[in-house]
Amino acid sequence: MLVDLDDDLGNAIAQAVINEYRRPSKLGNKLLHNFRNARPKDTETTVLAGLVSIESNNRPIDQTKRQKVGKTPRLEVLVVCTGMKVMPASRVEHSQGRLVHDLHAEILCLRLFNWLVLQEMNAIRENSVSNLLIREHGTEKFKFKHDSQFALYISEVPCGDASTENLRDSFADQTIWHSLEETGGTLRGRNGLSRLGSVRTKPGRKDSPVSYSKSCSDKLCLKQFTSMLSSLVYDLVDDPPYLSFLVLPKQKINQTAIKRCFCDRIKMPPELSSYYHPLKVLASDLPCPFTGSTPSNLSILYCPPRSYIQVLNKGVRNGCPAKKSIQYQHQSDVSREKLAELALRLTPHKFKDYNELKNCASVSACKKLAREAIGHWGKGSEDNFLLNHE
Predict the structure, then answer these.
(1) Which of 83, 257, 291, 305 reaches 20 to 30 Å from 123, CA-CA?
(2) Strand ranges in 41-171 using DSSP code E only, listed in sequence order
(3) Contact (Cβ atoms closer than 8 angstroms) between residue 36 and residue 310
(4) Continuous segment of H or E residues that includes residue 112
(5) pTM for this prediction
(6) Domain coordinates in residue numbering, the chain
(7) Please, what is the Cα angle at 314 between 293 and 160, to 5 degrees?
């Protein structure tokens, strides 16, 4: 994996996402009003992330060479998300697939991308035209139309191992470095900061409820093996797409930490090496779009190709009660239940519950090996539920 601090492509990708966030190009007046109301106030902050496709006209960008802006292929912003919250394990385990537990912007981008892919597949199934996918002749699988690469811009370095040194250096009380409190067998977010290269849960205050959700660093590292697609979508696509680039703020990139997180800590068994698609990390020196310090409670999900926006609060649609028993109509379109419903329309197979659907995916064995190669993954939150095939 390479880190390039001077590649012009990083700024071009970041600018495309920031421009779409500041001036959404595909929203009507009502949706635009909702979007603007959900942005952080001047006293608030959040994380901005966006997924961009890079159409390369059958000439993939050479990840070993520096690119100039004048030679940059066409960029299309597919999804833009904001967010920096995570829901506690106690709420996930009672949600029946209706709570979005990880509300960090970069993970929301991947969930919304999978929603977009499933929407496009179902459109093709209903004889509509898709700008993203085609259905291959003689097979039920789908294929991406263009010879594209994908880049993920994030306005902050991902939480977890990629930013451990940054977090450690920000603490006045250095004794927290050596606390080794674990959650479900995994280091808890901000504890044990001297233990570099470790899998961690999402950071949180020491008095915050326990979450088993793994850090964004760990999840993005895993995506180098399993692709951008979730287990629900993976087998529906021929040649699943992988992230080629990760674009991060230049002044916050610690090259040693980045290389360790996405490459050096991986103990690669031979049977896993063919799945490995290493990221290239690019730098952006564009200023952060947020000036406040109080974390925003809201998360924006915006998909320009579908003129779609949804705002979340506490893991459900904004304005809806976030109780233990979440009503069907109050959940997000990127919840596990909603994504499973979209996926079930595209497969002739029957599955009893969500775990069976997810674990039957051909990528499951790769995911298990990759988690072991990255480090001690530990337990996750149990969120199984029965599936409705109607």
Answers:
(1) 83
(2) 44-45, 48-55, 74-82, 84-86, 102-104, 133-135, 142-144, 148-154
(3) no
(4) helix 105-125
(5) 0.94
(6) 2-374
(7) 60
Task: Give the residues across from 133 on adjacent strands.
Answer: 144
Burial state string for 308-338 with b = 16 or more CB within 10 A and e = fewer than 16: bbbbbbbbbbbebebeeebeeebbbbbbbbb
Would you say the C-alpha torsion 67, 164, 111, 318 has a positive or negative sign? negative
Q: Is 214 helix (H, G, I), strand (E, B) or coil?
A: strand
Q: Report the distance separating Cα 258 and Cα 262, nearest Å.
A: 6
Burial of 137 (0-12, 13-18, 19+ CB in 10 A): exposed
Closest C-alpha among 209, 183, 188 to residue 92: 209
Structural tokens at position 206: 């020491």
Side chain identity at 93, as an amino acid letter? E
